[in-house]
């Protein structure tokens, strides 16, 4: 059954050859237009989605989006150059309400992976026909736990047939996270080479290789394109005390962690030493606010409750410190590298447990493309370079975009989702000396948080022709040779 709905289509480009007027149907954000750093141009290209999380391009250039609580949608855009993109066709590829975050494609692009809090699923996928062509196969299971339900997925490009799965743990399970066999707060690697549908799913707690553990919630995981080094961004704990004293405002810091290379020998026994500290040790962001913190500096690990068996010294000697540390409560969600490996892009969804809101931005980190290492030192407080921010963080989270998933297209443009506003944005470099610009209709609104004129179907400016929703059913259409969502 065909069903009409409104989706956001957008066009824009004002750098150089094309004038702003050459891009029609420019969308207006739901909230006040973001601030864009110099050297960048940004635009809203889609809206009206349901909690869009992870995003990824398939082999045809279509954008796949996990809509949390709904399924996976597929979007095609007319590309008029720069950030002038107009959504011309969208449909539901898979409808499965339990899908909430994880998304990946096989090295050949013909298998689609997605995750729920409990399991990782795989479908055969025909990008040219824009359809899944099989029933879902369960690859990994036994991952349920209360809270922190995202299960981030990454398919290695350097070591074929390796699926990386990141799983956090709830605060109620924090003590169990200190036990390797629990499977909580870990990143594991699974060999999915030629895995048949008749084989039993992997059990996350007992199968796979442990890439790292003691990780509260590493939502963003990425592979450096030149070296193959695996990095992840970590959401640290809220409401932390130190020896009974509240230090939650500016500590602990969020983390960028390094896990080595998949082509090195990785096994569960050897990985027992790859513990990054949770729930015992955390990274310092503001040393001045940590009582009895003599000798602690940015990026050092500290013990939340010092005793005879756990001290700051044992945190430093027995656990792996972050490669970089970010301000507390920024909530990093995704990490993607530029093709050359010289830049890492990070989305920060924003604070939860802080008196004044922080985060809510897209930022970058400079890397040495040859070594795959960040240029900033481990104790740096200046590693991040803001690209796009909200105009007034004091209005967050209610009147802000909240960046989540990242994808980089074949032209090097940065796409990201904002789950709280149901939007997709595009960023493009325009030159270091150019003024930062967020493209809006000439003389039009700038977004007021009301939800009007924002591409959510409430205004004529936001309506996209041809939005088509096709509900998932496993009915084969004779003559097409594929399973389609109808």
Word description of this protein:
- The protein is mainly beta and 486 residues long.
- It has one helix spanning 312-318; strands at 3-4, 35-36, 40-46, 52-57, 63-67, 71-79, 85-95, 103-105, 111-115, 120-126, 131-132, 137-141, 151-155, 162-167, 186-191, 202-203, 209-213, 218-223, 229-234, 241-242, 245-246, 254-261, 281-283, 301-303, 324-326, 332-337, 343-348, 361-368, 373-374, 385-389, 403-408, 414-418, 423-429, 437-438, 468-469, 475-476, 483-484.
- It contains one helix and 37 strands.
- It is globular and about 65 Å long.
- InterPro entries: 6-blade_b-propeller_TolB-like (IPR011042), Beta-prop_PDH (IPR054539), Quinoprot_gluc/sorb_DH_b-prop (IPR011041).
- Residues 1-19 form the signal peptide.
- This is Soluble quino protein glucose/sorbosone dehydrogenase.
- Residues 34-429 form the Pyrroloquinoline quinone-dependent pyranose dehydrogenase beta-propeller domain.
Give the total of beta strands. 37
The number of helices is 1
Mean pLDDT: 87
Q: Oligomer, anyone?
A: single chain
> What is the rounded distance between the termini?
6 Å
Describe the global form: globular
* Helix share bin: under 10%
Strand content bin: 35-45%
Name the poorly predicted regions: 1-21, 450-486
Tell me the major beta sheet: 6 strands, antiparallel
Determine the structural class based on helices, strands and strand pairing: mainly beta
Task: Calculate Rg over CA atoms.
Answer: 22 Å
